Amino acid sequence: MTAKKDEPASTALAVISHNDFAITQFAGGDITQLRELIADNLGADKLTVRDLERISVPAGGGKSWEVIMPDGSEDSVKEITGVVIAQRNGRGYWERPFEETGGEPPACSSEDGVFGHGSPGGCCAECQLAQFGSDKGGAGRGQACKQMKALMVYRKEDCLPIVITLPPTSLGAWKKYAMRLTMRRLKFSHVLTSFTLVTEQNKDGIKYSVVNPNIQAVLEDGSKEFFDQMSVALGMKAATPSPSE
Questions:
Q1: CA distance linking residue 192 with residue 217, whole number of Å
Q2: Of the four, 75, 131, 211, 239, which is 20 to 30 A from 58 by CA?
């Protein structure tokens, strides 16, 4: 059925409910009980973005994601689908090329893209490693300290979100997707998004993977509020202040 001219384009998409997600099968989706479970398991430690399962874009132009299964094993999947409940900018600096680090932590990193912790640390905007042309391994075209974005994604089968880390080469694709959602008057946290991978090649002939996000469905009104509350409850996003605050 064709949507009326005065209707938003989103009416042509499937509508889903948060009841389709595993989180609602736990205590009926009671956020308070989920927070109590986290407190029981973590004790005095607080849940942070760093504690969540993290999935990175593969190197070398790979088209499969390596995801952690409940038993701790890894599995290769072509697509990850979920609701992005929050996003955070970040940065990371490795003293050696990433493929030589063996997955070791960066020498300096930032969870907000503003202030770095480690060596050299400090204000990211003033750091020489964050300037374009500082990346010696990229023929001077990029930044030695890489811009990244962390997406907190709630998959249907999980009771906690995972983190998809976008490298510099995928930031443009995510921004274009966000703009497409904006044109349809949709928030990224109010839709079901699929993440696949495509292979591209730079000027030096090196292949790399780029994230390809696409909208799969929209959340019904009550489900939009549910995931907004979940984001705040897990500390992924600050609560919106009331007009009197």
A1: 5
A2: 131
